[in-house]
Amino acid sequence: MAAPKVAVVGAGVIGLSTALCIVESCPSCSVTVLADQFSPHTTSDVAAGMLIPHTCPGTPIHTQKQWFKETFTYLFAISNSAEASEAGIHLISGWQVFKNAPKEELPFWSDVVLGFRPMSKAELQKFPQHRYGQAFMTLKCDCPPYLLWLEKRLKATGVQMYTRKIADLWELQGEYNVVVNCAGIGAHQLVGDEKLFPVRGQVLKVHAPWVKNFIRDGDGLTYIYPGIHRVTLGGTREKESWSLSPNAGTTKDIFDRCCSLEPSLRGAQDITVKVGLRPSRQCVRLQKEVLRQGGVKLLVVHNYGHGAGGFSIHRGTAKEAARLVGECIAALQGFSSRAKL
């Protein structure tokens, strides 16, 4: 058969990294990215891009750890290359602090990040309201730079990118052999996934170049994540809220909470407010599906529903999605060679 045509729907961190993994694992494929929004207008552009996993209750821990490890290894190599600045990837040290010691003193990812250890009493003096803490070094992907770097890599390999709103995957039948659904929260409507729900996140991006270390409250609600140019302050987790409008009361609450962890932030300037809808479900949907209408088939690979932890596992899930695309193409090629016989 001719070069298999693959469409990736979605251009956030999941869509772009999945497209890149397909190109790397199946160079003979013709890959196209279709999305109604590209950077800087994606949910991924709102995210802080920190590599600190969020546990998905419906996914086995060993699978989550594998995805995280593959992502960390991939980004660590970029952070050690000449591409690091353009890709917006850097190592960052900091603290995760708790008002009470957590049940799990060693999270499943503690041996993947660098130098994970309990905080000393002297360090904890910085956080008088907290009684326990963990110190470690991890990676951060700044967006838009990381998404633009992925787009550049894709264009260099001949991947086409088009702004196009897809209302139904069946629109792509006949144009493409395999369709990869990386639509994030858009999958709620696109494929009618009732198990997918938004968790609204509001964050502030501020200018505070003296803040060098990340600080994360163990409840995951309050966090300070310094990037190369801006510091992300968060946040909120509002289940089932579809509102993309910033809330002024929430902005003040986030700022006050972050200042209680890092009082010097009172001097932060140039505050902008961003809102994103995390595509959440019990587990990431990462699977093949054959859609049928009458006698017509459409091969689909789903890769969405990463919730708050998309950046932490994006490369691992992209590799798995690319492997599933490879299986679809092998099945198609087997079918076409049998048809010739």
TrEMBL record:
> Keyword Ligase on this protein?
no
Q: Where in the cell is it found?
A: Cytoplasm, Cytosol; Peroxisome matrix
Q: Which UniProt keywords apply?
A: Cytoplasm, FAD, Flavoprotein, Oxidoreductase, Peroxisome, Signal
UniProt lists the family membership as follows:
Belongs to the DAMOX/DASOX family.
Q: Where does D-dopa bind?
A: Y223, R278
Query: Is Signal one of the keywords UniProt gives this record?
Result: yes
Q: What does this protein do?
A: Selectively catalyzes the oxidative deamination of acidic amino acids. Suppresses the level of D-aspartate in the brain, an amino acid that can act as an agonist for glutamate receptors. Protects the organism from the toxicity of D-amino acids. May also function in the intestine.
Residues involved in FAD binding: T43, S44
Write out the GO cellular component annotations.
Answer: cytosol; peroxisomal matrix
Which positions fall inside the FAD dependent oxidoreductase domain?
5-324
- Class of enzymatic activity (EC top level): oxidoreductase
Q: Which reaction does it catalyse?
A: D-glutamate + O2 + H2O = 2-oxoglutarate + H2O2 + NH4(+); D-aspartate + O2 + H2O = oxaloacetate + H2O2 + NH4(+)
Under Gene3D superfamilies, the record lists:
D-Amino Acid Oxidase, subunit A, domain 2, NAD(P)-binding Rossmann-like Domain
GO terms for biological process, alphabetical: D-amino acid catabolic process; L-aspartate catabolic process
Signal sequence span is 1-19
- Which InterPro entries does this entry report, sorted A to Z? D-amino_acid_oxidase_CS, DAO, FAD-dep_OxRdtase
Q: Name one Pfam family in it.
A: DAO
* Organism, as annotated: Buceros rhinoceros silvestris
> This chain belongs to which protein, by name?
D-aspartate oxidase
Q: What EC designation does it have?
A: 1.4.3.1
